[in-house]
């Protein structure tokens, strides 16, 4: 196994942070636009206006899943991010399918602008899910300071602890 120079390792970590940041922002923007658009008018009758939630009931819950997935991308570790990525792909595709297949009331005048916005906003959610599924296991994780208080600490080998103490300049003999 070869090790890479420190400069290359630092560049790789920086690239991974940029990828994670871009993926989280992309997912968040897509989910928020979906939530905005689902509350707007999608159809009108003479006496009533129908929002996206009225005609495509699955869009709002799937947009909320995408928004929760945004937070989960930050909170999960390696393989958890891959799972979250797969769920985000499913949420993005499901949102687009639900919006495209919206059932309008008979005789309603269709206002397809917001439905198209939802379909377009589902794309970044699905793309961020693909990125997380493909590269999420390589991204950095939150530090231990975010762990729950009293979380179990890793038990260190006594021999390693002895050498670590010597490296710090501590005298292990007393």
What is the strand arrangement across the widest sheet? Answer: 2-1-3
Indicate the structural class: mainly alpha
Give the termini distance in whole angstroms: 38 Å
Give unreliable regions as ranges. none
Estimated helix fraction: 55-70%
**Relative strand content:** 5-15%
Mean pLDDT: 87
N-to-C order of helices and strands: HEEHHHEHH
Cα-atom Rg, whole angstroms?
Answer: 24 Å
How many runs of DSSP E, i.e. beta strands?
3
The coarse silhouette is elongated
Q: Figure out the total of helices.
A: 6
Major sheet size, sense and barrel closure: 3 strands, antiparallel
Please give a handful of descriptors for the protein shown.
174 residues, 3 strands
Describe the structure.
- The chain contains six helices and three strands.
- It is mainly alpha-helical.
- The chain starts with 5 loop residues before the first helix and ends in a 6-residue tail after the last helix.
Record the SSE blueprint.
Blueprint: H1 6-38, E1 41-44, E2 49-51, H2 52-55, H3 59-75, H4 78-100, E3 109-110, H5 113-135, H6 158-168
Antiparallel strand pairs: 1-2, 1-3
Helix pairs in contact: 1-3, 1-5, 3-4, 3-5, 4-5
